[in-house]
Amino acid sequence: MRLLIKEAIDNIVNEKLVEYVTVPEMDDDSLSEYLYIMDHFNVDFDQAHSLNEAEHRGRKVKLNKPFRTPGGPKKFAVYVKSKGGNIKKVTFGDPNMRIRNKSKARAKSFTARHKCAQKKDRTTAGYWSCNVSRYRKALGLSSSRTW
What we know:
single chain; globular; 3-stranded antiparallel beta sheet
């Protein structure tokens, strides 16, 4: 695991050599999130620890970690940092519907209907709806199939 992390980080920082990286309790989904953020925002390793937490309306929140919103207008929500640097709460999902992506046909239909291949902006509900299965453990979903 450490070698994979080291290789991935080496690629991100333009072949800059890193002796080791300690990542406590990080599963594959969290690691891919971490590496994506490091690559996308050109983050220095000293700033990396501050990427997971931010303050939104006076409360400390975790960034890029979807959670259920019981009694809310939507099924899920996630806090993200916008391109301008502001923290934004993105809500998505119909609270009255189930996520049914076990069937290949249903998953294919959803992907085509929502154009998931084009959804790259993390500040939109469409991106998170298309990638909800990445966070299946945290959200309590049973299916591990990606759309």
